[in-house]
Amino acid sequence: MAEPHSAKSPRPTVEPSVFRSIMGRFATGVTVISYRRGDTPTGITANAFLSVSMDPPLVLVSVRQSSQFIKHMALGGYYGVNFLTEHQQDLSSHFGGRSIAGLQVPFNEALPAPLLEGCLAHLIARVVDIHPAGDHVLYIAQVEHLRRGIEAKPLIFYSGAYKRIHTHNPELWNYADGW
């Protein structure tokens, strides 16, 4: 086991551009984290999203400190997680900071957090813990609502670009057995 880093040992030097490039080699799904900015539904694109615990069901999203999300999300607040399909790249771009003029955003606002229509799956989670982490903030939330969406191929992000993959036929899966 490696020795823990101490103030006396030299700090490892990691070039940010190399770090970003290496981390880009890890393929991820793409989500839009939806929330309310006052009374207005909005969202941010995030691929830094993961399951943390099954019992209780917890998820985590990592958000840049410069994001508007941080100004509107606190302990006890709700956010939605929308798993995007390969045909929703425009929504990913829009909520990722490249606004698309005239884009009709299909929000469903009936639950504690707005959700985007036409996604693979949806979660609504209540924030239970917030942790600053470098230039990001980690929001851990307990899942309170789940909804399976449409059957479609996922939007994937890999090596700095959107990618498409082939998926298995879900009708062949036996959910009771896991496959």
From TrEMBL:
All copies of domain Flavin reductase like, residue ranges: 23-164
Keywords for the protein's UniProt record, in alphabetical order: Oxidoreductase
GO molecular function: FMN binding; riboflavin reductase (NADPH) activity
UniProt-listed Gene3D superfamilies: Electron Transport, Fmn-binding Protein, Chain A
A Gene Ontology BP annotation from the UniProt entry: pyrimidine nucleobase catabolic process
InterPro entries: Flavin_Rdtase-like_dom, NADH-dep_flavin_reductase, Split_barrel_FMN-bd
Domain of life assignment: Bacteria
Protein name: Flavin reductase (DIM6/NTAB) family NADH-FMN oxidoreductase RutF
Organism: Eoetvoesiella caeni
